[in-house]
Amino acid sequence: MAPAMLTARFKQSVTPLALRAYLAEFISTFFYVFAVVGSTMASRKLMSDAATDPSSLILVAVANTFALSSSIYIAANISGGHVNPAVTFGMAVGGHISVPTAMFYWISQMLASVMACLILKVTTVSQHVTTYAIANEMTGFGASMVEGVLAFALVYTVYAAGDPRSGPLGAIGPLAIGMMGGAMVLAAGPFSGGSMNPALAFGSAVIAGRFKNQAVYWVGPLIGAAVAGLLYDNVVFPGQAPPALARSNSDGIGA
């Protein structure tokens, strides 16, 4: 019974509609990572000491807000516009998408991130692709906790924005998610880096060849996303449509 069910779910994950969703995730994640990593590189190019200049943090936060909102908007009707493996994980834990579909989403998001960072590396020549790093005074555990809180806030906003009970307010969902993302960068950028997105941290690390503290940007966000999804669906706002009614490849809005 179990193997047959897994086979059926896998087949649902490779339909033409599902493949379109993966392509949409690739494109939207590419745009998002290109804008966020590119803005960080640009701030270091324009400012003599971007690491300590507050305006550098504002520049990256604004870029994150606009890029996230736009990336979600262009993919929301096709893939759900997750743009983030943590969001995909939260949706899978909540039963809104199947595990095979989530895995294909992850592959699309990771490839898009690596490709975006690679193009930045090749085209800017002398510029180094910036990677996420934790502050010297922070431990890996502390930074992971911070990233978990950031991802919790982001995914909770994703769930709320995609709630059909939001009515007309759901139209501003991508904007609300983008603004939350930008706010979280301002809140934690100097401490943990403010990634909230495992694909974002992974792509820049691959191209830069630096994987120090990479686990921080996976463990924290994935746990935070799972808690946010379970809390919203089962405790704070129960009574959602049964997960079985959700399409396996395009439920919810994501970030």
Automatic annotation (TrEMBL):
Domain of life: Eukaryota
This protein's record includes keyword ATP-binding: no
One Pfam short name: MIP
Bilayer topology: Multi-pass membrane protein
InterPro entries referenced in this protein's UniProt entry, alphabetically: Aquaporin-like, Aquaporin_transptr, MIP, MIP_CS
Gene Ontology molecular function: any one: urea transmembrane transporter activity
Compartment(s) of residence: Membrane
Alphabetic keyword roster: Membrane, Repeat, Transmembrane, Transmembrane helix, Transport
Transmembrane domains' residue ranges: 20-43, 55-76, 96-120, 141-159, 171-194, 215-232
Family note: Belongs to the MIP/aquaporin (TC 1.A.8) family. TIP (TC 1.A.8.10) subfamily.
Protein name (Swiss-Prot/TrEMBL): Major intrinsic protein
Organism: Corchorus capsularis
